[in-house]
Write a structure and sequence with these properties.
Elements lengths: L1 E3 L5 H18 L6 E14 L3 E12 L5 E12 L8 E6 L7 H12 L6 E5 L11 H18 L6 E12 L6 E11 L4 E11 L6 E5 L1
Antiparallel strand pairs: 1-2, 2-3, 3-4, 4-5, 6-7, 7-8, 8-9, 9-10
Helix pairs in contact: 1-3
Length: 214
Amino acid sequence: RAMEVPPSPFPMSRAAAPALGYLRYLRGGPGRALELREVRGARREDIKDVGHKYYLELELEDVLDNARAVPCTAEVLYPLGSPASAPDVQVTLQGQLQSTEGADNEFYSRTRSLEQELEAQNIPDSHGRVPPELEPLLRLGAAAAGFVIWQNSRENTHLNLAQIKHLKQVKRPDEFLQFDYVLLLHEMVSQEILPWEVTVLWHPGDSVQVLQDT
């Protein structure tokens, strides 16, 4: 039984949150910022004994590519009977994202050459400002937050990254960069602010890896 969802209700924007989170986790990093510009359309299908499936048409923005519009479609399935299960998300981009190879390599080289491990807090600050040198770390944190949002979204929640409360680089013997983040997520339905600790590994050419999230 399929039920059409009109263009602007809350369930649609809530279902868009894990879709954007999943895509940020999969394709995000220090050199790419993806934002949701608009939910262009949606319908919901109630699948008997399986769950509720949302079909979404989204317009994203590739912020660092001259704010270019990136249309995409997403399917978000909330399974029945398992409240602890993450939604099953599939996303299809229409068009290519700009290569981040140059920006990623520059960030990696600069960070590897630092004598002191990076440490920062309150990104953005209370006035919404982000120092330019911290912007790649905010984007990396947003990719990690994407994983947390995808894994912890439910049909009646709407999670969003509010702020990086703290981050600290951890030296490693291998080629990866490691950062310990404390993320503040805004649960927009209950208006709660939820702190989340994540350990993030990253290397140019690889997807972001979230080792733990609590």
